[in-house]
Fold this sequence. Notes:
The chain is mainly alpha-helical. 60% of the residues lie in helices and 5% in strands. The protein has one domain.
Amino acid sequence: MFLTDKYHALLPFHASSAAVKNPRRAGKALSKPAGSGAGAGSTRFGAALSARLGSLLPLPASPLAALARLADLLALTLADAVPALAGEGDATAVAAHLDKGVALLDACNAITARLDRLRRRRLLSRFALHLLSSSPQHSSIRRARAALADRDERAPSSPPPPLPSLPFDQPRDRLSAAASVLLAVDAVSSLAAAAAAAVFSGASLHTVFPLVSASGDFPWAEAFNAVSTQLATLATKTGEVDAVDEAVRKLTSVIDTEGELDEAALRAVAQEVEKRTEDLAASLDRLSDAVNGVFRAALCLRNAELGSIMVGPAEKTFLQVQGNMGQEFGSCCTSRLCVKEAASDNTVQFAPFCKCGIQ
């Protein structure tokens, strides 16, 4: 199931397209005109991002674990961007960023599909082990061969979409405070997408990890480049997915051997497959939780962006989001998002203070 299905209650059913297409009207809904340089909110945002990027190092040896930690950081970055954008007043930058938010949501869906595919492959490996351990007869061996062949060769009924890339282009012009915050969001999103592509595509894809030109406007640039460099190095090493594939190839080789089955060799390689698949299961669950967090945070940022360009006092109300990620405010009524989400338990309920009449 795609995350867009799971969290459909947080999606804007009626996007404020008129406000996006009319910059003059959109600008009137903002508290002040766009200006150059960093505001207080964006300054705090940059300092927090720099500290969090530094805390990622050194990266864990597991590519999946490193990707999960990076996804956690991306979720926090998206959450911090909501209050950092409050009152900054750059309608053009916010409107231009809406499409990039959709691309990030698509990337989350694609990664979730890859995780589901890996879980299916893991289940088929475990099923083959069960058949071999319960009754190592010719019929069981034949069924185990079929399960492993299904794991490696037959495409799933609903193949996952390819992982979308999130290219990062750093502008040379001086940016407003709001644009600087959104640039940081784009940089971390691009880094996470590159890391995911490296983990799930392996050597079949040459992954380019983004770098940021250091300047006084981006205090997080040095820490970002250090993390990007280490991720590029980690991408060249064998991860949990490759380790499981190698163990399964050994198991297939043993049971495909002509003549009498070497039971000692079978036990040894079966134990290796069992260990590798158990390690992979824990890593997949951890990463799945992290991607869910990114998806929810990306929705909250998108809703806040839509709210910031809505016009008219009668159309504006506030959405209060409370939970583990802190407290943020955005608009909801014209997009019918009269909900309050508690991030601690993922429950969603209608906010009692909304003026649109939905309780």
